[in-house]
Write a structure and sequence with these properties.
This protein has 255 residues and is an alpha/beta fold. Helices cover 38% and strands 18% of the residues. The protein has a single domain, classed as Glycoside hydrolase/deacetylase (TIM Barrel, Alpha-Beta Barrel), CATH 3.20.20.
Length: 255
């Protein structure tokens, strides 16, 4: 049976502010990227989300970001390399503590939002993130967008890398995500998302908005949990993948 990982960003509520339906979404995925307090999440949310993932049998990942609660981590920021490194170490370590307290272990790291997007195209930033992850725990998997600087720089420092594609986002001919402000950048229909995923898995690479094939490995598929129809989309994708002979696996089983 073919294997694939399905991941989602989780634990992004903060205080009385609620983001997504983590309880329902967790039943459709096999790996959770848990916010670490800088773009979403707080200590109580982190604790509850780790427990939810453990109880569901979903592998745990840290989802660090720029320190940008007001902008949900989607605003570009320019930090020094030292500050960028320390914010990564801080956030990963915080989630590791919650996992350890519940007898679990963080197995991967996936940067969030603007931090992720910028590091995908800027090798120096990507290298800093990769070194931070390795220094915290060289056994961590780096979940990185396929064909990105994040992927290549993580491999250079010796980390295991899981190549990721996005179920609900359109791609440019360079393999980067189409800007959210442009038409068609975000795909809301679950069946359309599934058909795109199956096409890319069948072709063995990213297929751009214009139809260009960019060959790459695909280990994991991300479904966003912060949209109105996220749970229904995730359920459609999960069922569609299993119906086409795919077994959904935690990320450590993929790389």
């Amino acid at each position: 049976m073919k294997q694939i990982n399905l991941n989602a960003d989780m634990g992004e509520s903060f205080g009385r502010y609620q983001m997504g339906d983590d309880v329902q979404l967790m039943t459709s995925i096999s790996s959770a990227n848990i916010a670490c307090g800088f773009h979403g999440g707080d200590p109580l949310v982190m604790q509850k989300t780790v427990k939810l993932a453990v109880d569901t049998g979903v592998s745990l990942g840290a989802h660090p970001s720029f320190p940008d609660l007001q902008g949900f981590g989607r605003r570009m920021m320019r930090l020094s390399q030292d500050e960028l490194y320390s914010t990564m170490v801080y956030q990963i370590g915080a989630l590791q503590a919650f996992a350890h307290a519940q007898g679990a272990k963080v197995t991967h790291v996936k940067p969030h939002g603007a931090l992720n997007n910028m590091a995908c195209e800027e090798a120096e930033m990507a290298q800093t993130l990769a070194h931070a992850v390795k220094d915290v725990d060289a056994g961590l998997i780096f979940l990185a967008p396929a064909l990105s600087c994040l992927s290549s720089e993580a491999k250079k420092v010796g980390l295991r890398v899981a190549e990721e594609i996005f179920a609900d986002r359109a791609y440019t001919e360079k393999g980067t995500l189409v800007n959210r402000q442009k038409d068609g950048a975000v795909i809301h229909d679950g069946q359309a998302c599934l058909e795109r995923i199956l096409l890319m898995l069948d072709k063995g690479g990213i297929v751009s908005q214009s139809g260009v094939l960019l060959p790459c490995e695909i280990h994991s598929i991300c479904v966003h949990g912060d949209t109105a129809h996220a749970c229904r989309v995730a359920q459609t994708i999960r069922k569609g993948l299993t119906d086409h002979g795919y077994q959904l696996c935690p990320l450590p089983d993929m790389v």
